[in-house]
Amino acid sequence: MTRKLRVGIVGAGPAGVYAADILTKAELPEGFDGVAVDLLDRDPTPFGLIRYGVAPDHPRIKEIIKALKRVMANPDIRFFGNVSFGADVKLEELQQFYDAVVFATGARRDRDLTIPGIDLEGSYGAADFVYWYDGHPDAPREWDFQPHAETIAVLGVGNVGLDIARILAKTADELLVTEIPDNVYAGLQKNVAKDVHVFARRGPAQVKFTPMELRELSHSPTIDVIVHPEGFEFDEGSMEAIRAAKSQKLVVDVLQNYLAKEPSGAPHRIHIHFCQNPVEVLGEDGKVVGLRTEITELDGTGNVRGTGEYQDWPVQAVYRAIGYHSDNLPGLPFDQNAAVLPNDGGHVVDIDGTPIPGVYATGWIKRGPVGLIGHTKSDAAETIGMLVADAPQLTAAEQPDPAAFDRYLDGRGIEYTTWEGWEKLDAHEVELGANDTHQRERKKVVARDEMVSISRS
Ligand code: NAP
To answer: Distance from first CA to last CA of the chain, Å, rounded?
Structure first.
């Protein structure tokens, strides 16, 4: 007697879809004659951070969706959107329908920055801003751009910091050719930023930018990129970092090119400052009026120490882009320090290190919020390799009939969306874009109930 290996994957972002793809191609142990994979997501749409994390002016990265669509066309993979793990379905319930459950829930919120003034009006987390400009259904429809915020600080020098700085420095009209929804275009018109200052607490050889993203910062005709010279005295740790990674050398080269370049007189400027550690957001009447940084110096190892000298920057808004953070998942252990599901190569373990049978993790919830989208492929290969090897020992699902999960959701009155539903919404958004006076490739629908009703129509 053979049977299908039934796997539920929670999270239909790239990590989840890659895991599903690898599963369908895996060589299965004796006793299995195929796989049946259900991908669940709390968003009504698939693709996670590609839809709700990648900036709208990065269509090249969004092209990855084409490859993910090919994966999802496999009849052995089903999609259930608008299903929230924890609220709509719990682990014990999923275990009735699947032999194994893989968590690919990513990281959705900002890491905390505990400095005085961080809660002032005009101080924002990058993840919230990204959700807003990417039209996430749970983001507020309006962004409260401060009416006089011409000078803005962005904290952190990763690619999210670059996205935030670029979106703030571009004009709303430059972004009108993208998929941004109407409320985002209307909101961006209220942005009056002219100078966006990006702060790195360490030096140029320690930035987390990738070369291509840094280079394209200067592609907008409305933006001058101004790199400030402080921090360019490389210590041995910095030289080592440049020698060790070609991409880091490229990043430093691009920064040096910007440093040598005269500003063209463009109306907006992105400034990049090194060796400035943010220590306080300054406020007046509850609103941001400045940022205080401590000047740092490289200590020989590529790390920095404070100099005890401080600098105040008059800014009217502060965006912190210091990394994402995963949320703990109801009913599962959580490593509070690393903000991941504790795991051994992808097999989720209890706080005492004991593997939890049939429960796995992949992507950012497995290893933390670092790395580009492609990196989740090797992650998924490791996790799925382990799952497949464990398959003969897994407890078979009590309710293996695929229709049993649909019945469960229907019985609970959950308005789930399907792959066919996504295809309807996809076509609708493409049509909205084509009918727009600017002939766009797509215009996003934002409201959850509208997305669900189009998908289920
Ligand atoms: P990230 O790459 O980890 O960068 C976080 C930045 O915040 C670092 O510069 C870090 O500096 C700084 N930071 C952390 N704590 C700080 C503190 N307390 N004070 C001041 N600065 C602090 O994170 P991310 O930008 O959120 O990106 C996450 C992942 O998504 C990355 O792998 C990124 O490449 C990827 N991504 C890619 C794109 C793309 O267009 N290709 C776009 C967005 C995101 P230290 O190094 O000193 O800690």
So the answer is: 40
